[in-house]
Please model this.
Amino acid sequence: MSGGVWMIGHPLLNLLIGLAMGLNLLALGSSRLPSIIRAMSVQGMLLGLMPLLLESANLDWRIILVVLATIVGKGLVIPGLLRRAMRAANIEREIQPFLGYVPSLLLGAGGTIAAVALARALPLMPEHAGSLLVPGAIASVLTGFILMIGRVRAISQVCGYLILENGIYLFGLLLIHSTPLLVESGILLDVTVGVFIIGLIVDRIQRAFDSLDTRKLNTLRE
Amino acid sequence: MSNLLLIIVPLAGAALAAAWPDNRTRPWLLPVFGLAHVVLTFWLFINPPVVAPGDWFGFDPLARAMLPVVSLLFLVCAAYGASYLRIRLERPNRAFVALLLAILGLLSAGHQARHLGLLWITTEAVTLATVPLLHFNGTPRAFEATWKYLLVGGTGIALSLLGSFCLGYASLHGGGGGNLTFAALTAQGAGLSRPWVLTAWVLLLVGYGTKMGLAPMHTWKPDAYGEAPSIVGAILAGGVTTVAFTAILRVRAVVGAAGEGPIADRTLLFIGLFSMLVAALFLLGTRDFKRMLAYSSVEHMGILSIGAALGPAGVAAALFHVWSNSLTKGALFLSAGNIRRAAGSPAMDDVRGMSMLTPRSAAIFVTGMFAVTALPPFGPFFSELQVLRAALASGQGVATAVFLGCLLLAFFGMTRVVFGIVDGRPSPTTRANAKRFVETAGVIAPPLVLLGLSVWLGLFTPSILREAWLAAVAQLFPTP
Model:
């Protein structure tokens, strides 16, 4: 194994992951949609920078592609789509979420602590031992779930989904050195196709229902 | 190399459909490419190619045991689709036809994927390709269903990616060199890190289980099947779910090689029984005959999961059930589509007396209902009998009792809905609506063919098929 992988416990990387975990809490505690979108997009850009740090020893075009796609996709394009949908629907705020801001914040904070504990229980390779990647991944996945389940607006739910994906991306960084193809293609597919379709569907729902309130999507039930 | 043609030919068809200028003739591409695919698949089925262990795509015994039925179902649905799209000429069908063909190509890729990452990529692509098909009808209800499908399905995809990463890490932690083909992972076996293998198993079961529609991750299914055109429902229920089942079987083999097979089997058994129970209870309550089909599909996915939990004999029975369920469910979906079109509503409160208005479709629908609730001589009866035998042979007395109880409840639930819409006197609005629908051969023959195939499968299961299922079992449970 060449130099790059040893960087995984790097203090700078841990700082970035710590920031990303802080952004999770910001997204959970905010009632304004623009702040959730901003937290999600800044998190996406932070994540986009990480492969550069990890693989600084052996950068190739695929890593560059992943970095560019992540930063442009998660940091600019998707937030742009969501902001446009938000403006079109003329909404700024979340309305009466299923799960309040304080409870979701507490749940998120508790989840972050639990994530650190859980990551200790799983056997890590020696070079990954000091890294925040695993706790950061688990905490983001949990944050994503809380947002998806606890919020009413379609946009908040999409942000939740994207934060969940960010968590998976963090976990994928553990493997980027050994199985680059799996990780890179996974990340690229997620960024380009999946999310593009979500942007599209938000637009369609908004036009069909004239609102992005998922509580109105309640005709189909038993 | 010819196995790659199974992927390339439909994808080329999709590209052709996307470029085809005429809305009226474009649907004919569906049966043309469907037929080409069936011919290729059965040629490979009879002359199975040699698959090298390191191959990323291969027509291996597991693909051989499942892909032909998907291909067959697609061809029949394609023939139906050509007639269906002719009565829906008011809507542009470019995306519809192109995506259906793309899905066929991606399903062929998914069934043949022998690499953890490729498997995930193909199943994700299938999910995304399905999205525009679900809102083909363009109604608000269809968009609601699509939204739920995207959110639940997207989460499933994300969790299966996380699970794939965990399995990759299990291999890396155990000293693996980053080769993620299933052959390499199985060969590493006990060398895989067990805590990571178990984490991966839970995530992959939830992720691919969402795609299959196992309870409690089934919530997208009634909405999607209820609102999408029937041909899409048939392909989802009989084709797309099978690729997720293939994924679970392949992962289960790796988990078994790592020495955690018993835990995997217990979870599969539990989730299977839970799916059957949830489906049976909802079948007793639903008042919509297309949503009924979705719950019936949840029930049958539960049966597959139970079969997969019961060792070699159970897996062979489950593969048999994949065939019988796909063909029978296809007949039900297509005939339900006719009834839905003629009646103008899927709710049993509005629809009555369809045996007078659409006698042929109603007859197929009733027969299909009996077939899918395991009445002999149809396929599902024999395959479910085999699952039962495997359960009794492995001493699962309680599970067998729950299994039979759920089958009975599902039977009550389905007969209630089906006879509710078939019997009685049609209301004047239904009568007026049904005048616009003609039961042409193009919409009656396809479900009838599927029903015929279901009987044929039950009564005269060809020995080459049995041999294919056993070969797949031998691949999944290698004797040391």
